[in-house]
Amino acid sequence: MVYIGFMLGVAIGLQIALAASHRSNGWRVPNALSATTGFFHYVYTLPGVALAMIIIGIWAWTDMNIKRMQPYIDLAYGDAPASRSLLLDYSAFHPVVVTYKAYKQRHTLVALSSLMVLTGLTLQPLASSFSPSVIRGGVVPLLKYKLWNSLAYPLFHQSTSH
């Protein structure tokens, strides 16, 4: 419950920050505090990495517990062979192998959990590039104008002459 509350708080905080960024057309940063060089480059990039590391660490811990509990869940349903209950050990394998094995044995929760850990660990290094691009206005205007116009224009501006 604490993890869910934390994630909801992070999501709400990000939405508030995004709304504030849209209102002021990006974050205003003086030239002396440039995000591209010097000490402030690390001030802007390291909090994103630290936050991603904490979230992925908590999820990896949760994933390990899901992997440990799956044999007992199958055992509780009864009629499970030993290879699918007591002898099943997902915690000894790499997340790629676990995702494949769990999907093959129809343990969907274990497969999705391992896939989320793998995705998080893969994308964690990209968290350092998130802050400067938002501060300089690189990501938000691209999504706001170019992507939205290319996707929404054909939907809302249809010809009425057919």
From TrEMBL:
Does Signal appear among the keywords? yes
The residues the entry assigns to the signal sequence are 1-19
UniProt entry keywords in alphabetical sequence:
Membrane, Signal, Transmembrane, Transmembrane helix
Query: Is the keyword Transmembrane helix in the record?
Result: yes
Name recorded for this polypeptide = Uncharacterized protein
List, alphabetically, the InterPro entries matched.
DUF3433
PANTHER family the record matches: SPRAY (PTHR37544:SF3), SPRAY-RELATED (PTHR37544)
Membrane-crossing residue ranges in chain numbering: 43-62, 109-127
